[in-house]
Amino acid sequence: MLVSRTLSPFIMLFALYVIFHGHYSPGGGFQGGTMLAAAVILIRLAAGGDIAQLQFPRGLGMPLGAVGVLIYLGTGVAAMIGGGSFLDYAHLPLPGAVAALRSLGILVIEVGVGLAVVGILVSIYDDILEAGDR
Amino acid sequence: MPGLIKAANFAVLALFAGLLIYAASGLPNRGDPTAVLHRDTSPAGTPNAPSYYIRNAYRDAATPNMVTVILADYRSFDTMGEQTVIFAAGLACLLILRRKRKKPKEEIEP
Predict the structure, then answer these.
(1) Taking burial as the number of CB atoms within 10 A of a residue's CB, which of B2, B22, B89, B95 is the most buried?
(2) Measured between CB atoms, does B92 come within 8 Å of chain A?
(3) Nearest to residue A34, comparing CAs of A106, A114, A124?
(4) Is the minimum CB–CB distance between B80 and chain A shorter than 8 Å?
């Protein structure tokens, strides 16, 4: 319990690093989201499902996943509103050079992917656990 | 009988290992410029997509990590599909495994 309580925040920090540093080093939304989910599930394994609800409630997983998917789709639609085609980040309605806008668009969708992955993985873990309980 | 099955398992494993080693002996050397994989054009003579990505990824998206640019920019539709697949998997788990809390208990109690 002590080990996982000490380790979990560091795993989360490294997961955030993996998500946001995906532009410069190996990493990205899928990898970082999986590590975030691993940190959350580690606490669930160590503390038991009921106490871990304080950290990440059971009902939060799927809404978080939906928000992640909507961030992705919303970025695509925002590019359409800016006059480009779907997911063409160069036409995002923001000031800046074309290449910088593309970089920003990649960052936004990586965050969306990360949110979706962490929410859905924790949700699947909870579902399987609940199915085993009954 | 179990001994026979075990022997058959080992035979299949050895066969598969031999196949893999044979296949690996045919791989091109690392960085070999004459290998089909590493050529600038495809065998049909048309330009390859990878060389375009290598040349233009940084200029197009100002991001040093080429893999991220390909995944999230050039092929963002594909990544969107991956994310949708994960979402669908989570939704299927939710619908199949999670049951409404009250109904089963009422059925069990009497």
Answers:
(1) B89
(2) no
(3) A114
(4) yes
